[in-house]
Design a protein that fits this description.
Length: about 290
């Protein structure tokens, strides 16, 4: 794989939801002239493992059948979008295998469904698998739960607080907003009337707005009162109010027990949002973000 090619990994369980995720990945791959890798995982724990036991022959037969379906799907997708589409069947723990393959192919993005009916040949990617992937993935992850999505992206919701690492999302928002000609709505959820904290939040929002506007992106900023809601509920309500097409959140590694604003709400947002959610793990410093590409 060319290291300069934008690489998108799409876990496929052949459920309706995973196909919806694939459709969104196709649209993005077309915009960036990228490459898609389809991955189906045969789960090594649970019912399949008990059925197969140590019978390698049964596993081999299943993998061959799964690979044939993936190859056909890859051919169909490639024919539609005119880009390279790879297909891979693997055996292992679903979330771990997705992360391993993302590292192997140097993926820039994972796009995965988080809802659907379990397929015959592979376990669906849902529930704890989704959250384990977003908290361990080497690249951003877009999780897709709802069934009705806009073909592009008109509005991106970018929640921020006082934690500097959450600003790493800004560079990703800038890139996607440029691709889609989308508006970025930067929002901070506030509780109480601490004037010093509010002043700091406003300064933070203005800094982000200036960065995005300088990058040619339409941007708005807003402070939203929590009004007795959870943080995730406040963000989801804001997303619904403005008919967002994407919410960008920051997640922490599973071993991180800090209570940063967005990481504590991340799981609830991922599970409850009908809008695609892009999760970004903090890896750099604020200085790595605010240099325009």
């Amino acid at each position: 794989m060319n290291s300069t090619t934008y690489s998108i990994l799409v876990p496929i369980g052949f459920s309706g939801q995973s196909i919806i995720a694939l459709e969104q990945a196709e649209r993005l791959a077309t915009l960036v002239d990228g490459e898609i890798t389809l991955l189906s995982v045969i789960e090594t724990s649970g019912l399949l493992s008990r059925l197969f036991g140590e019978d390698d022959e049964k596993y081999t037969d299943l993998k061959l059948e799964l690979q044939e379906r993936l190859d056909q799907l890859a051919t169909d997708v490639s024919g539609r979008i005119g880009l390279k589409v790879n297909a891979m069947a693997a055996k292992g723990k679903v979330s771990q295998k997705i992360v391993e393959v993302a590292e192997l192919i140097n993926a820039n993005l994972i796009v995965m469904g988080t809802n659907g009916v379990p397929p015959e040949l592979a376990k669906k990617v849902i529930g704890s698998n989704a959250f384990r992937v977003v908290t361990t993935s080497p690249c951003p992850v877009i999780t897709i739960k709802g069934k009705n999505h806009f073909e592009g992206c008109r509005t991106i919701i970018l929640p921020l607080d006082l934690e500097k690492e959450t600003k790493e999302k800004v560079s990703h928002a800038l890139t996607l907003a440029r691709l889609w000609d989308a508006t970025v709505k930067v929002v901070s959820v506030v509780e109480g009337n601490d004037m010093d904290a509010l002043a700091e939040l406003n300064a933070n929002l203005n800094q982000v707005e200036n960065f995005l506007v300088a990058g040619g992106v339409k941007t708005t900023i807003e402070l939203v009162k929590i009004d007795g809601r959870s943080l995730s509920k406040a963000i989801l309500d804001y997303s619904n109010e403005y008919e967002a097409d994407l919410i960008m959140i920051m997640t922490q590694q599973e071993t991180d027990v800090t209570s940063h604003f967005i990481s504590s709400a991340a799981q609830s947002i991922i599970y409850n949002s009908e809008v695609p959610v892009m999760s970004v793990r903090p890896v750099g410093k604020i200085s790595d973000v605010y240099d325009l590409p």
